[in-house]
Specification:
InterPro entries: Amino_oxidase (IPR002937), FAD/NAD-bd_sf (IPR036188), Flavin_monoamine_oxidase (IPR050281)
Helix content: 25-40%
Strand content: 5-15%
Distance between the termini: 78 Å
CATH topology of the largest domain: FAD/NAD(P)-binding domain
Number of domains: 2
Main location: cytoplasm
Protein name: Putative polyamine oxidase 5
CATH class of the largest domain: Alpha Beta
Subcellular location: Cytoplasm
Mean pLDDT: 84
Keywords: Cytoplasm, FAD, Flavoprotein, Oxidoreductase
Number of helices: 8
Oligomer: single chain
CATH architecture of the largest domain: 3-Layer(bba) Sandwich
């Protein structure tokens, strides 16, 4: 009798799911050791990575940056696949300006003497939040501290620490205080794009220090982020990736509980799909986005239909405290873009 091979199912064909599948497939000495499947609810691979052409340029509709190139596995793949150079223009190919220009409403060009102190304050506060610095001055004492409240407390403390400042002139109705407030808000809005948060007050302060970036410069990928995804998927055998298979429920039973309730013999996990089909597995790796996972857990709590059976333990549900949100990227195109004059 031929022994049944273990079956591993990965949910999600984004970066995490395809990386897991790639590692499992390439690390084994023989493909006969286990069955491997990647099930994806959408019609394409990549998840939030979605490279597209727009106005003759290559742009990213989702993930865009390699956040630090030193020891980055993504940068390594991009190098190996020759994806860091392209004849076609690509998004942020010139990176960010080392000397940005800050302009207030009304077309007023702001001097460094106004911009730099607030910029330095914001960067210092974020260094504390990300544990790059340890002694936190004026930290508010609250058990539910958010990034938003921490930053605002820091700005208030900065203003309280200053003696009377000389008022600015020549900026219309703008006062020094209003300009400093607007500069600080500008950096807050930029930070929101980093964390996909509509409101920084929804970001947990403790979780911010858990995020780690690789060293070195931050760059975009000339041939598109999708080139990395395609490289990961290229080694997988035909039939391994199954598109259009949205998982609606995951059931698990202990190994010693028998094979009742419709479970496959000896396979403890059963996946239910939106088309009514199901699949049994020995091991399941869930790689859906944090937002999708949080929504599933909230549905469990609300009683609107559990996606997990049994429900995750309290420790596993700590995902509720983690940061994350959603935002949309909207590219703009103008036929005479190069002729536009920006004050």
């Amino acid at each position: 009798m031929v022994a049944k091979k273990p079956r591993i199912v990965i949910i999600g064909a984004g970066m995490a799911g395809l990386t897991a599948a790639n590692k499992l497939h390439t690390a084994t000495a023989s493909t006969d050791m286990f069955e491997l499947y990647v099930v994806e609810g959408g019609s394409r691979i990549g998840g939030r990575i979605n490279t597209s052409d727009f106005g003759g340029d290559r742009i990213e509709m989702g993930a865009t940056w390699i956040h630090g190139i030193l020891d980055s596995p993504i940068h390594k793949i991009a190098q190996q696949t020759h994806s860091l150079h392209s004849d076609q223009p690509w998004e942020c190919m010139d990176a960010d300006s080392a000397t940005p220009t800050t302009i207030a409403e009304g077309g007023f060009l702001l001097p460094p003497s106004i911009v730099h102190p607030i910029t330095n304050l914001f960067n210092t506060l974020m260094d504390y939040a990300q544990a790059k610095r340890t002694l936190i001055p004026h930290k508010p004492t609250t058990a539910t501290l958010s990034i938003g409240s921490f930053l605002r407390h820091g700005l208030d403390a900065y203003w309280d620490s200053l003696k009377e400042q000389e008022e600015v002139e020549g900026f219309g109705n703008w006062s020094r205080r209003l300009l400093e407030e607007a500069i600080f808000a500008m950096h807050e809005n930029t930070q929101r794009t980093y964390t996909s948060a509509g409101d920084l007050s929804t970001l947990d302060y403790k979780a911010e220090s858990e995020y780690r970036m690789f060293g070195g410069e931050e760059i975009t990928i000339a041939k598109g982020y999708l080139s990395v995804i395609e490289s990961l998927a290229s080694v997988l055998p035909d039939g391994c990736i199954q598109l259009g298979r949205k998982v609606t429920r995951i059931e698990w039973q202990a190994e010693n509980s028998g094979s009742g309730n419709g479970f496959c013999s000896s396979r403890p996990v059963k996946l239910h799909f939106c088309d009514g089909s199901d699949m049994c597995a020995d091991h399941v790796i869930i790689t859906v986005s944090l937002g999708v996972l949080k929504a599933a857990i909230r549905d469990d709590h609300s009683g609107s239909g559990s996606e997990f059976s049994p429900n995750p333990s309290q420790n596993q549900q700590s995902v509720e405290e983690q940061m994350g949100g959603s935002y949309s990227q909207n590219p703009l195109f103008h036929n005479s873009w190069s002729l536009l004059q920006w004050p």
